[in-house]
Design brief:
Blueprint lengths: L13 E2 L9 E2 L7 E2 L2 E2 H5 L1 E4 H5 L23 H19 L3 E5 H4 L6 H22 L2 E6 L18 H20 L4 E4 L5 E2 L7 H22 L4 E4 L9 E2 L4 H10 L6 E6 H6 L4 H10 L3 E5 L18 H13 L8 E3 L12 H26 L1 H9 L6 H7 L5 H11 L10 H14 L2
Parallel strand pairs: 1-2, 5-6, 5-14, 6-7, 7-8, 8-10, 10-12, 12-13, 13-14
Antiparallel strand pairs: 3-4, 9-11
Helix pairs in contact: 3-5, 5-6, 6-7, 10-11, 11-12, 12-16
Bound molecules: D-xylose (XLS) and nickel (II) ion (2 copies).
């Protein structure tokens, strides 16, 4: 065992209730509390994102690293660094009491001098992860391959103009999917980091989409070949790093999956701030995914109302999360998915304990939101209103239209013979919004 890294947090984080003033305690997240027939822990399946928390030292495009991450310093043996990093990561998971983590292949193991060496490093670090997981009971929510960092992927991975790059990406995904399977991962994620374009002047859009469709088929075939029973998830994002990304939002990915006949094989990982970037809100993207039967998992973070980039803050809005969770619960809840904190500290959050405060706040926000969503659903406050609002569709006219029994001509005859004059009714939006606010403040 290596020396502890998080020396300023000595005790595991415990639930102390909303009245607690201990900043290193949960005020809402009570893992064993049963909500709507399921433990909070099982509803939410919280996960720490290895990359932001352990593989990032705070560098941004304007400045160097600020955070205390000694294993990222250059000069030392990269595999020794990877082991130190992993020990610190699992110490953190243990103390936080989180059930899952997520990684990119390159977060847990360094890139080698050759493809073979990269694979060897990955397998060696997967062995180390297996030991840590066994000892701690922490599970893998999902694995993913980093197909965007290395310069070879500057023009995309699956959508690269060069089939050699496609092949390299496929080889990397094969290795990472197998490691994810070996570690009992519940899902495998594909975020199209640079699957998009910078300019159409050099891009064959149709060809690139066909390549992406082919790539996904290869992943799905391999999943079945090795008996991986987790879900394959695409994570939509409209832009950043490229100007336009093919997996723009839920609707675009849904259409893509239909077009390439993958709709029964692939689900979605919805990220809160990606929804905002696409000009939607989290509520919309979750509802769209549930409606299409495509909801897989959630990357929990938050954007900034005024900033149009992926700021990846930890979630702070109970209301925003409650609306998303409401749709999730209404759709039957998460199965293989969970809430992964794809979120990073601010560059000035210099204390080692700041990583705890960030996750405690995020977990409490989502747990509080779960209680709000569960009560709103149990009380039927919106469902009754919805049923009432659409009740006409249960009548003869509505059923006839949807069954395809009424032509335009029929409807013309219907309206003119009866001289109908339908009247608008109140949508009651403000009253409904007040209800949400009431639940946010009243749940205990
Ligand atoms: C980037 C994405 C990324 C994926 C994993 O914006 O959110 O972090 O979740 O590759
Ligand atoms: Ni993400
Ligand atoms: Ni993101």
């Amino acid at each position: 065992m290596s020396a502890p890294f998080f020396t300023d947090v000595t005790e595991p984080i415990a639930y102390e209730g909303a009245g607690s003033d201990n900043p290193l305690a949960f005020r809402w997240y009570d893992p064993d509390r049963v909500v709507a027939g399921r433990r909070m822990h099982d509803h939410l399946r919280f996960s720490v994102a290895y990359w932001h928390s352990f593989n990032w030292n705070g560098f941004d495009v304007f400045g160097d690293g600020t955070l205390d991450r000694p294993w990222l310093e250059s000069g030392a043996d990269p595999m020794a660094q990877a082991r130190t990093k992993m020990a610190a990561a699992f110490e953190f998971f243990d103390k936080l009491g989180v059930g899952f983590f997520c990684f990119h292949d390159r977060d847990i193991a360094p890139e080698g001098a050759s493809f073979k060496q990269s694979c060897a490093f990955l397998h060696e670090m997967a062995d180390a992860a297996a030991e840590h997981m066994e000892r701690s009971g922490v599970g893998l929510l999902w694995g993913t391959a980093n197909l965007f960092f290395h310069p070879r992927y500057a023009a995309g991975a699956a959508t690269n103009p060069d089939p050699e790059v496609f092949a390299y990406a496929a080889a990397q995904v094969r290795a990472c999917l197998e490691v994810t399977h070996r570690l009992g991962g519940a899902n495998y994620v594909l975020w199209g980091g640079r699957e998009g374009y910078e300019t159409l002047l050099n891009t064959d859009l149709q060809r690139e989409l066909d390549q992406l469709g082919r790539f996904l088929h290869l992943v799905v075939e391999h999943k079945h070949r090795i008996g991986f029973d987790g879900a394959i998830l695409i994570e939509p994002k409209p832009f950043e790093p490229t100007k336009h990304q093919y997996d723009f939002d839920v609707a675009a990915v849904h259409a893509f999956l239909q077009r390439y006949d993958l709709v029964d094989e692939v689900k979605l990982n919805i990220e809160v701030n990606h929804a905002t970037l696409a000009g939607h809100d989290f509520h919309h993207e979750v509802a769209a995914a549930v409606a299409a039967g495509l909801l897989g998992s959630v990357d929990a973070n938050a954007g900034d109302d005024r900033l149009g980039w992926d700021v990846d803050r930890f979630p702070v809005s109970v209301e925003q999360m409650s609306l998303g969770l409401y749709e999730i619960l209404r759709g039957g809840g998460l199965t293989t998915g969970g809430f992964n904190f794809d979120a990073k500290l601010r560059r000035q959050s210099l204390h080692r304990s700041d990583l705890f405060h960030a996750h405690i706040g995020g977990m409490d926000t989502v747990a509080h939101a779960l209680l709000v969503a569960a009560e709103m659903l149990a009380d039927g406050v919106f469902e009754r209103g919805r049923a009432q609002r659409y009740r006409g569709w249960d009548g003869e006219l509505g059923r006839g239209i949807l069954a395809g029994d009424r032509s335009l001509q029929d409807l013309h005859a219907y309206v003119s013979s009866r001289d109908t004059s339908p009247q608008p009714v109140s949508g009651r939006q403000e009253a409904l919004e007040n209800l949400v606010a009431r639940y946010v403040h009243q749940v205990r």
